[in-house]
Amino acid sequence: MDNKTEYVPKRAMSIQAHPDDQDFTVAGTLAKWAKAGCDIVSVLITSGDSGSNSIEHDVDYKPRLAQLREDEQLAANKVLGIKQTVFLRYPDGELVATLGLRKDLTRLIRQHKPDVVITGDPSGWFYGNEYINHPDHRAAAEAATYAVFPSAGTRLIFPELLSAGYEPHNVKRLYIHGNEKPDTWVDIRETIDIKIEALKKHVSQGDTHDVDQWMRDWARESGKEKGIEFSESYRVMILQRENEKEAGQDAR
Ligand SMILES: [Zn+2]
C-alpha cells in the first residue's frame, strides 16, 4: 500500500472516557498522524479514579488514583507525540451522555477546531461473548458524536457558548473505533511499537508484560481482511469532503 495516499488531518481530537482507552484502541493512528505533523488534542472525560479493585484502596484513594492516572496519560501522550491533553474530571464509572457533557465537548471542538474527531462507537453494547462494553465508553462516544454533529457546527445550539466567543466549527470526519463493520483501515506498521510503549505507561492498571503480544494480535486481526500486517480499523463518517486528491484516502 502506498502510504502517501493515506489521509492525514491537520488537526485531530481524541475523545475517550478513561485514561488508557485511547492507547488500547487508536494510539497507532494518532502516533502516525502526529509524526506526519498533525496537531492532536487528547480529551479524557474521566480520570479513571475507579480503576482499582485492590482491597487496600478505599474511597479516599480516588483523588490519588486520578492524579496517578492523569500522569500516566500525560506520559503516554508524550510517547505518541501529542502535545495537548485536557482532563474534564467527570466521575469514573458514572458517566452519562448528558447535555452538560455534550456542551463541554462542543466547547472544546469549537475552541481547538479539529478536522477529525476520533472516538468509540456509541452503538457498541457487546464485543464477542466475553466483554460487555463499559457504559462510560458508550456515553463518551455518544456525547462526542452529537457534539461533532449537530452541536459544534450549529451556531445557535448552546447559545451561551456563542456568547462566550466560541464560533461554530465543522468537523470534517468522525473516526469511530470498535465498530463491527469497519470501512477504513489505517496501516500502523510504523507506529505499533510506539502504541505498545504508550500503553505500558499505564502502570497502575496492572501487569503490562503481555501487552506486546496482545496488541500485535489485535492489529494483525484488524488488518487481515485488507492484507495489512498491523492496522487499526474504523467506521468513518465523512461530513465534509475535501479535495480528495489532496486529502488522500485510507484503505477502504
Ligand atoms: Zn475504559
As residue ranges, the low-confidence spans are none
Number of domains: 1
Mean pLDDT: 93
Structural class: alpha/beta
Structure explained in plain terms:
- With 252 residues, the protein is of the alpha/beta class.
- Helix 3 (62-80) packs antiparallel against helix 7, helix 4 packs across helix 5 (135-152) and helix 7 packs across helix 8.
- The chain contains nine helices and nine strands.
- The N and C termini lie close together (12 Å).
- It has helices at residues 21-25, 27-35, 62-80, 99-112, 135-152, 159-163, 192-199, 211-224, 244-247, and strands at residues 11-16, 39-46, 84-90, 116-119, 126-127, 131-132, 173-177, 184-187, 231-238.
- The structure holds zinc ion.
- Zinc ion (ZN) binds at residues 17-18, 21, 134, 137.
Which structural traits does this protein have?
binds zinc ion, single chain, seven-stranded mixed β-sheet, two-stranded antiparallel ribbon, Rossmann fold, 9 strands, 252 residues, globular
